[in-house]
TrEMBL record:
Residues 1-25 form the signal peptide. It comes from Kibdelosporangium aridum. This is Serine protease. Transmembrane segments: none annotated. Keywords: Signal. Gene3D superfamilies: Trypsin-like serine proteases (2.40.10.10). It comes from the Bacteria.
Amino acid sequence: MRTKVFLIAAMVTGLAVTASPAAHSAQRADDVLAARAWHPDAARISYGYYFDPTDSKYHVSFPDRNRAVGTALSRALGDQVAVSYTAETPTIQAGDRFNNLPPFTGGAFITPDSPTARQCTSGFAIRDGFGVLGSVTAGHCAGHGNIVNYHTGAGLFYGQTQGSLRTTTRDMARLHGFFTVSYEPFIHTDPGAPTKRRVIGKGDPTLTTPICVSGSITGARCSITMISLSSGTACDEFGCTSGLMVGRRPGVTIVQGGDSGGPVYSQSGTADAIIRGMIIGEASPDTVLMHKISDVESGLGVTVATA
């Protein structure tokens, strides 16, 4: 893709162009990763990756059990790719997010009533096109095209997935309470103080925006540096979602399995938060893949609920 953009720009300006070997290599890496054919299991497993302009490499993270897939990718792309592996069992580092009571707070642990769905994290309170309060989570949490009831760890009904999107650019779902439960414009931010923050605004981040993430397994983690606003990709057996933001805090676990759907935010003062997006996956434990908040709102036809 970068090669094509360069060539188009050059034709518009009337420049004579000879694509560099580096540009050809980058395009080849794009093609290999997009095709998911470098190993028989490449299109059957979950993993995340992003392009880092600082070292001109694709950074790809696989579950530890899929080392054969990672090894095959390293052979295929050589020094164009940096492969890492993540632990199979996440370590719970958040506080009490398993016993959420109404009105429900964003960043809560939610568990499905379907064996094909996944345990995930709720995002933040939203209003749909009719002004009805609800919540959001990642689309892959509920399975491909499934409608799933989610509950808290204590067994309370949290919401049903509605308007779930799984496309090449969207991975998101709306949670509807059917007027039987309520949601509040607050998000969990434990461990540490405060344990909850009030949502007072929203807005896409820039590369210099300080951001935090808050998954129900890992908890709130801040001091995350934005690497890219669009170079991240998250894949599973149903396909890949690209155009994701990438944030990193070197050497610190900021995201694990079960954190998907959690809020991405900036701190405001001592007790408030600005919603910046939603957790979608990881490209290593210290690198998080995220949707922009504008993508979540436009994709689901909702707006962030504020206090």
